Amino acid sequence: MTENILERPLTRRQVVAAGLATGLTFLVGCGAESQDAADWIFVDDRKHRVRLSNRPTRIVAYTTAAAALDQWGVTPVGVFGDNPRQDASLASFPWEKSEIVGSVYGEIDIAALRAVGAELIVSRWYPLPRASPVFGFKDLTQQQSISSKVPIVGINGHSSAVEQIDRFGGLAHALGVDTKPEATEAARAAFTATARKLSGVAQRKSSLRIIAVSGEQSTMYVAKLADTADLAFYEHQGVPLVSAQTSAMYWDSFGWGEAAKYPADGILYDARQIALPLSVVKTIPAFAALPAVLANQIGAWQADTPPSYQAYTRAMNDLATTIASWRKVT
To answer: Are 165 and 35 members of one domain?
Structure first.
């Protein structure tokens, strides 16, 4: 699987249970150290300490990080990733305030970074068994070369959804945003209410089996919940998701001919650009014959949801609407 396919949101995150049932912790400023008047200091989730003479204002970010920061009140001046302007997570992004500094995964235009005056790069990162670059970088060599010019902050995408939201809120606070205004409180309240709504729908569908799937031309991927922050969060709300059973990280992968390996009443299919389009997948005989497909119980999986209250609220509303009419077919 290619690097940006591995980056499918769905995979990676050992969930540190943080449920709404026990209350949400709003960690404002987490990661920012006490600092001298002239210094700005932030310790990221890789334990890398970024120290600048002044608080950075010219931020460049990977797609999902850019979407989250913008909703926290920090609009990056540059964005990189896979075709950012077509990325659904950036559908409402104010592009008139930002430039593309990389439109192919792993390719970042150094000249464009200079042109936008980049002072800090923000992305998400997954602590794999081996050292790994933050999302959007081809490899550690490229990352090291760029970080020698512009410092990089990596936020752990393997932590729980709520923790990721809090960490981006903490970073926004460190970047000078007041993270306790009425708008933030309203967004958090909507998030909490929608999570309860999803739980109510999920309770009525508790007898179902639902899997989350992505795909490439010759390979079907079924997501492992413990490694996928958004799915683990939905499972915590009661959505009857079935996890891939594998010792591998993130996914159980196999040929499309084995599509029936995980019996399911419903399928959430990866809606991102990097996945094989669902219209193509439905033409694969073994997949087309699945009970969930025959019953038209396939919904869009908004995988790799940006870690913000607003993005998760939309994703949860969509999920609740999707599964509300599903019935047992296996």
So the answer is: yes
